[in-house]
Amino acid sequence: MFTRIFGKPKEQANALATLDKLNETLEMLEKKEKVLLKKAAQEVEKAKEFTRAKNKRAAIQCLKRKRLYEQQVEQLGNFQLRIHDQMIMLEGAKATTETVDALRTGAAAMKAMQKATNIDDVDKTMDEINEQTENMKQIQEALAAPIGAAADFDEDELEAELEELEGAELEEQLLAPATTAPAAPVYTPTPATASSSNTGKQPMRPTPQRAHSTPEDDELAALQAEMAM
User: Fold this and answer.
1) pLDDT digits 0-9 by tens, 93-112
2) Residue among 201, 217, 198 nearest 209 (CA)
3) I want to staple 43 with a disulfide (CB 3.0 to 4.6 A). Which of 62, 63, 88, 186 is the partner?
């Protein structure tokens, strides 16, 4: 299991050692390239000095050595390119190997889990769950059923009676007239009332009208009017 997860130790060690070796070689080539470039630049300076000294032969020799250094630099550049290419291919192969190993590990783990889980056990468990659910549903329906006198009530009759009550309430609201509070009457004394006060009689007081008067209200209003005379 651990070998599949982390890859084969020997192969991984070889791949890492190869990459380290390539890196070391690449660093060595880069250092040599810098040295050769420095030497080529020195030969150019020497050629300039010989040219100022009118020593043409020595100046040409310096340029030849510069060309040789430049050829070596170009060769080293090709070597570096090949090493880079080799490192990229090796790293890609290493990543591919690790990916395949990881996929194999996942497949093995899934296979092991499937072996541990039997399809018959799953079906049995689901049947038990469905049975328990159905039993609970029946228990809840039994608890919700009415008992005693309430069990004899007809739900349709109760709903019809409720509809009649709602219809009667709506009809009463439609037939009832709109009620507004009447304005309070303002009493203004007149000459007739003033003369009646001289004879010792009380002036009649206006009685405010009430909305929705009943027979009892009418009798009470008539009694008050007689007492005021």
Assistant:
1) 888 888 999 999 999 998 88
2) 217
3) 62
Helix, strand, or coil (residue 212): coil
φ/ψ of residue 183, rounded to 5: -70, 140
Q: Within a 13 Å sphere around the CA of 32, how many CA atoms are in the beta-carbon half?
A: 17
The token pair at 109 is 């783990």
CA 72 to chain CA centroid, nearest Å: 62
pTM: 0.42
Angle between helices 9-52 and 56-116 (to 10 degrees): 160
Lowest average pLDDT, out of 33-37, 64-68, 92-96, goes to: 92-96
**Is 7 within 8 Å of 98 (Cβ atoms)?**
yes
CA distance 109 to 116: 11
Q: Residue 70 has what DSSP assignment?
A: H
